[in-house]
Amino acid sequence: MNKPDNKVFDISERIIENSPAETTAELLIPPDTNKAEEPKDLNYWRSFRELYKDPSFKKEKSLEFLPGELQKPDMSAFSKFTRRKFLALLSASAAVAASGCSNYRDRGEIIPYNSKPESITIGNPTYYASTCTGCSSACGILIKTLEGRPIKVDGNPDHPISKGKICAIGQASVMSLYDPERLKNPVERINRVSPNDIEWKNADEKIIAELKSAASSGKEISIVTHTINSPSQKKLFDEFVKIYPTAKIYSYELFDESEKKNAWEKCYGNKDLPLINWDKANIVLSLESDFLGSEGNKVETARLFTQGRDAIDGKTFNRLYTVEGNASITGLNSDYRMILKTDAIEEFVMCLLNELTGKERVSNFADDAGITSKLQKYDMKSFAAKNNLSEAVISHLVSDLKKNQGSSIVTAGSMLPVSTQIAVNLLNEVIGGSALYRKDESNVTVMPLSTREEMENLVSDLNSGKTAVVIHFDTNPVYHLPTDLGYTEAVKKAKTIITLGESVNESSEIGSFVLPVNSMFESWGDYQTRNTFYSLQQPVIAPLYNTRQKEDVLMTWISGTGDSYNIDNYHKFVMDNWKTGILSSAGTDSDFTKAWYAGLNDGIVMASGKPKLTTAAVTSDSTKTTNSATADSTKTATTLTADSTKTNNTAPILSNTSTAKSAFNPASFISNTNQMTSGEGFSLLLLRNGSLGDGRYANNGWLQELPKAVSRIVWDNYAAISVKSAEALGVDSNDNINITTSAGKMEIPVFVQPGMADGVIAIELGYGRKVCGTVGEDAGFNANVMMSKSPKLSKWFYNDAKIEKAGGTYEIVSVQDSYPIDEPLYKDIQYRREIIQEGTYLQYKENPNFLSDRHTKYSEEETAKLKVGSINEQYKHTGTKWGMVIDLNKCIGCNECVAACNVENNIPVVGKEESNNHRAMHWIRIDRYYSGTPEVPKASFQPMLCQHCDFAPCENVCPVAATTHSTDGINGMAYNRCVGTRYCSNNCPYKVRRFNYFNFRDNFKNAIQEEESFTLMQNPEVTVRSRGVMEKCTFCLQRIMEEKQMAIQENRQVKGSNVKTACQDACNTNAISFGDQNDKESELYKLNQSKLAYHVLEEIKVKPNITYLAKLRNVYEMETESAGH
Amino acid sequence: MKKNLPVSNSNDNITASGNSPEKINRKKFFRFTGLAAAGLAAVSVIPFGLFKLGSDHKSSKAVSKIKIVSNPNAVKRNSKQSNNRNS
Description:
The structure holds 2 protein chains of 2 kinds.
Chain A: H1 11-17, H2 20-27, H3 48-51, H4 55-61, H5 83-101, E1 126-131, E2 140-146, E3 149-155, H6 168-171, H7 173-177, E4 187-190, E5 194-197, H8 200-216, E6 220-225, H9 231-243, E7 247-251, H10 258-268, E8 274-276, E9 283-287, H11 298-307, E10 319-324, H12 329-332, E11 336-339, H13 345-359, H14 369-375, H15 380-386, H16 391-403, E12 408-412, H17 418-430, E13 437-442, E14 444-445, H18 452-463, E15 467-473, H19 477-480, H20 487-491, E16 496-501, E17 513-516, E18 525-527, E19 533-537, H21 550-559, H22 569-582, H23 589-602, E20 604-606, E21 619-620, E22 654-655, H24 666-670, E23 682-687, H25 701-704, E24 713-714, E25 719-721, H26 723-729, E26 735-740, E27 745-752, E28 760-764, E29 797-809, E30 813-814, H27 829-832, E31 838-840, H28 841-846, H29 850-853, H30 860-866, E32 882-887, H31 896-904, H32 912-916, E33 925-932, E34 937-944, H33 953-957, E35 963-965, E36 971-973, H34 983-987, E37 994-995, H35 1000-1003, H36 1012-1015, E38 1030-1031, H37 1037-1049, H38 1062-1066, E39 1072-1076, H39 1083-1088, E40 1093-1094, E41 1106-1109, ...
Parallel strand pairs in A: 6-7, 6-15, 9-10, 9-12, 10-11, 15-16, 16-17, 23-28, 25-27, 31-42, 32-41
Antiparallel strand pairs in A: 1-2, 2-3, 4-5, 4-17, 8-13, 14-22, 18-19, 19-20, 23-29, 24-30, 26-27, 26-29, 32-39, 33-34, 35-36, 37-38, 40-41
Chain B: H1 11-18, H2 26-45, H3 56-59, E1 75-77
């Protein structure tokens, strides 16, 4: 019966094969249900084979596996994707996913304080008043710290200059503090080549020996420093000179007001340039001056200027005329802009003087024969015709200056030569501009900058071997000083070169010793820039690295032994200086201590008058220290008036304490024969960059990536030239050119800038650093090489430049596409889409409804027909509804809001390459629109950020509901829900969403932003986003939450005006207002109701919560329909 | 009973039938894994930056851990909006 198992069993066969008896006995048992049988085992069977006891069945039962069951299957019939492969792939992909997504580095364990400092409450920030030393303006700042970490810098609201505002350099200074490339230890450069770490004490001992040797042998010790505006630092230098009598102090700045001061001295007999009441000026004429963008103390000037430009209050709305060859922020914000080659500006001033004195007989100077005879050859009409200036605009200007005598002011750019400045001084006398010179306050010069002759003497002493030791006191003269001065070669002849600095620079590369110094967050100091108050600087943290305050280093050298260093030396020195000088009127030690701490609390001490520190209750951690006087927080400070005449005993400061106006000397104008005339060559302007300053912040990524206000270019400087000049030269943007002047030669790419005068090249300085750290090295081009030590006109202005095409290109990157503004498709698109709405001030005064009157008027019936309902019912925000108003009349496009937003919201630096890919991560951007022609454009600036629309189109398309709306009107983002589809960005009409294509902190410059020190910079209240996540403005949600918490604690309603967003806080001109739109008592509500209020892209009915106030130009002509609408 | 099983029922045969020639040898696997781990450790631990010649900051010895210590002599304010006089 070894038959194949698969054969169907035939029961008839079985019956025949088996014995009949056996078969019948089993098969034919008649079931007799009635008969009672003996119980027996039941016969269970599963098949007939078993039932009939088939032998083959019996055999099979003895086997574990049936024959054939173990036959190998046909593998070719199966899928190639085996289980092994599947598991291998699964585990590999899991491993890759795990490693790829685990880029969050181990930040260590979070442990609570064992002994919590009394002054710290976890999560609650503390603020310290201090002084910014980013430039010589010494603005007052408030430093926000969290658990001891400085994370944000804002202006000190109590400070008379900054009034709660601060520039981009101050905002971004926290990045410089935590820069991982800061110098961390003293370095000795043996043979000035190989750097080796050295202990501070050893370095001090070696240097002291060098200093003593130089002093004893009569060799000069040269200290090269920036502006000295600190009374205590000045006193320290004096003490240093006492100990080392051969020491000399040299101070310089890359940008200064030497031309203005020299002219002022000739006209008025002193160098005390007056401050100006910008807010009281009805008419301002700016001559190649960027006073809103980069010149002087722009924080204060921009604030005062825009105070006089308030469309809502309607009290004042000044008119700004500019005459310039460059396209500056000031020029593009002006009402009338005349484009003129820079070297023709002096002739323009002479023509204007002749118009006013000779023709209009304005002021007594019209009767001065010397002046009138000098002016009579200047004719405005022919000048205007020759230079293609509008006669109508000039006529308005002359008329305005004549009508507004005493409330008009003329200002000239710092780069214009002395002769032009003298003419401008006279012009201000003629129009009564001198009435706007401030009488209540004046500038103070603690120690004047070195003159050109003094700097030349320094170099000649170095060359002749008279100088043995050179100390770079946190300066970089190798980079800053004009090449033809020969400093770089000369300084190498000194026996010892000591460079003190926060980071490496071009000067430290040639030094013998490189000593790391504290940042402004780690330093003590006092500053005086005005005669009415002093600013105090206090360290909020102990030095992060093995650094020392530079004044402390000097004190050690003064002591003559390396053992004398103590971290508190300079602190005590400043206090002693104040005790015996500035605060000597405080009386007893106890009163002085209270007054001192009150001053530290406020950040300022008034020299006289208001406000007196009468009730300052101060808190200080010094109550825990034993070595210093303690401030009693329960008591109040004594009445304090600092004595400004007692700055220090040894060297009284050179202050312009007399506010009486000196008389103008007409002879300075009449006898001035060194007049600027228009040259044949190009006019080369070397300008100050508003965010990089003199280049010392080149390694600060936030500042490098902050777009230039006009060109919107990042990470580079360039030669800006006009459209016609580019055509004449046969070059376009990115083409390299060679520029040659009497001072130097350089190669640089061109940027064709609309609105430039023909024959003018403008280049910003501060770029092209070769030694500064990985972020800033080789960003841009060093145009300092174009400066001359003895320029014909001024250090920053040459009119003999020659240009030739160099061949080759260099890509410069703009974060706003340049578009052909004269093509029909793009021309005035901002007006046609009503992105920018503007009119004239006259229009507004005549008809405040002029904006709404432009639109077609419909009857009620028509309106009802036109009304398109939404598919979603509008949510009624009955409680708080957050909103923002941006006044385009006050926004000057300075980008300081962008810098503040970067710091507050942990915005990463993405670098030039990714900026070029339009991947800059800024949550707020300033859109700059041109209208008119490329030769004579008008510009409008518009901050653009998430509009937090009521019907937000981004929300509807998010497949994972990562972006949603809150009940108080905020369009929020849940980062850990976002899967990165980017549908929201695609659907956003304002293009304000930013996608993390990379983990940009990791992707930029060898992951420098992932260094430990940079992680300390992050604001812990804002999530640090990573790759694959969409992000955008949150209306500074963390600040809103802070107010909500305060409201709960104080058992009150949330008050909108208590919340200030970071951009609002930073805005110098107060163009940004934020708050609760439902609060009818609020300023925001009032602004929202303004007749100038509009929403961008209103017609798409997404109902944005950011309102813009239409821009008004204070011009006589009514705007045409095309330009104004 | 086991010794009476037919040859075809042997477990050796079962193993042989599923053994892929692509399978990595256990010894090899551990050797490769060990080498890879050692390589990774070397890359992450050895300070290759030391071999670079360059600026002073690169030669400065590494700072192990940054400590934040607030200055005991500094005077803090209670809030941003107002100084202590107003609060």
